[in-house]
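agent> step 3/5: call structure_predict on target 'GNAT family N-acetyltransferase' (Nocardiopsis codii).
agent> reason: downstream docking stage needs a structural representation; sequence fetched in step 2, passing through unchanged.
tool.input:
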Amino acid sequence: MHEWAARVARDWPAFGVETRGGWRLGFADGVTKRANSALLVDPGADVAEVTAFYTERGVRPCAQVWPGEEDADARLAEHGYAVVEPTLVLARELRERPEADGSSLITTRPTPGWSALFGRTGVDGRTADTVTRILGQVDTAYGVAAAGEGRGCAVVDGESVGICAMVTAPEARGRGVASVLLADLLRWAHDRGARSAYLCVVEGNEPALRLYGSAGFGPVSRYHNRVLG
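tool.output (status=ok):
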């Protein structure tokens, strides 16, 4: 399995995992492709295993494809799997304590303010509950911007931290809310021993790429999803 694929799967974990037919098959009630996708374990893995596993569970079959997995990518395409959401993995070092104003509220459990951003950004209750359950399985810090207009998470694993679930309320976008929150999350993680940080962002999300680039993140890998139908 690709090194970054394993890391991302560990920090955004499925509720159940099966390894069979050359795939690691994760399932989390169908919420988010990242937690409901197949990761390649054996280069010669049979695509039919992916199709059967997710079809049995009523979820559209999905596989992540990482660099070096071109042969499997071609087989997925032959079986009717289309490319969805090419994604970049961005990373930066955290050797020095990041500058931050400390205005964000960062807690070890989701607060009402953190949860409220789901509804304000059009996310349904079932998805919100499942995402909260996913993050509850790992060492997560929940950050909320000072005025409650943005939120994000930091998943700490040893000396590394994954930034995820970043969102800004529609009416507050373009005001620097995410920049302040991101800096506060990175400093919080540094204070708890993290010395590197990473995140995943859809390749075409230009505002997010500008935000993370200005915060010192640069590309280290990439993947795309292949979704059946």
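agent> step 4/5: record observation. The CA atoms of residues 139 and 156 lie 6 Å apart.
agent> proceeding.
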